[in-house]
Amino acid sequence: MPDPSPTDLPADSFEWKFDDAGVSLNLDLPAGWTVQRESPPAAAEGFLRPRLTASSADGQIRLRVAAAAMKLPVGLVPAVVYWAQLHHLNELPENDERWNGFPALAGWSTAGDAKRVGAAWIQVNDSVVELLIDGPAADHERLSAVWDLMRLSFRCTSHQRLEPPAHEPESWWSRAKALRDEGRLDEAIAVVERDGDRAEALLVQADLHMERLRRARAEGETDVARDAWKKAASCARAYAASATSGGEGAARSIERDRILAELGPAPAQGL
């Protein structure tokens, strides 16, 4: 039997406006799909905020849409490498495409042993839209048909971004970044240790301790350097150990190994 054509699928059209991301999105999905808007807190810098999820009538295929206002001064590729790791994709989707005239990196990957994943990151002026569709690898014909339907129907426009209300609390990451930029590393570390609410906080701590290590080495402070090295290595190992699945563990181990490689050998004991 030939693969189902996207033009033959009964479809419903949807339109969403994401004010803080500065984009409006139009997309067709197969008829009968369930769509749910998400209302997560503001994402940390570098993360794409989830916007909605959708699933097929039998629950076997799922779509996740994320978007954020985000300038990419060096282009999509470095950011996509990072996001693909966050989603534990086994392969990097790297097809250079145009979606509704906007530059995109897209393609198929796998996650785990039996899941097929279609991923697209579309740069819409100063915003990014992320589409992730996944389902059983054995259902590749239906996955491909749904993917083609989305790709052909995708329409996106940018508009003026609405800033969050002034009373919205500043994220722990924003506060830590501001303190780091001011050179107040110990205070930045304290904010992350106190208020960080996700495993990624361990990566932030590791990075901050590596900054302490570099400064201490430059100033000849051996004891401070050794302490910073130990804490950075400990955070990196704790991040890898906090994984809850094999695929997540593999991805986090890559981050751990990267940090340990950057740290190098422990500073020699001071005399």
CATH architecture of the largest domain: Alpha Horseshoe
The N- to C-terminal Cα distance equals 76 Å
The helix-strand sequence is EEEEEHEEEEHEHHHHH
| H/I helix tally | 7
Side-by-side strand order of the widest sheet: 3-4-5-9-8-7-6
Q: Using the coordinates above, name the CATH class of the largest domain.
A: Mainly Alpha
Given helix and strand content, the structural type is alpha+beta
Rounded to the nearest angstrom, the radius of gyration is: 21 Å
Unreliable runs, pLDDT <50, ≥5 residues? none
Strand runs, count: 10
> What share of residues is helical?
25-40%
Biggest sheet, in brief?
Answer: 7 strands, antiparallel
Number of domains: 3
Kindly identify the CATH topology of the largest domain: Serine Threonine Protein Phosphatase 5, Tetratricopeptide repeat
Mean pLDDT across residues? 84
Shape: elongated
Q: What portion of residues belong to β-strands?
A: 25-35%
Structural features, described:
By secondary structure, the chain is of the alpha+beta class. The chain folds into three domains: about 10-30 and about 50-70, no CATH class; about 70-90 and about 110-160, no CATH class; about 170-265, Serine Threonine Protein Phosphatase 5, Tetratricopeptide repeat. The chain has helices spanning about 75-85, 140-155, 170-180, 185-195, 200-220, 220-240, 245-265, and strands spanning about 10-20, 25-30, 35, 50-55, 60-70, 95-100, 100-110, 115-125, 125-135, 155-160. The strands form two sheets. A seven-stranded antiparallel β-sheet has the order 3-4-5-9-8-7-6, with helices on both faces. A three-stranded antiparallel β-sheet has the order 1-2-10. This is Tetratricopeptide (TPR) repeat protein.
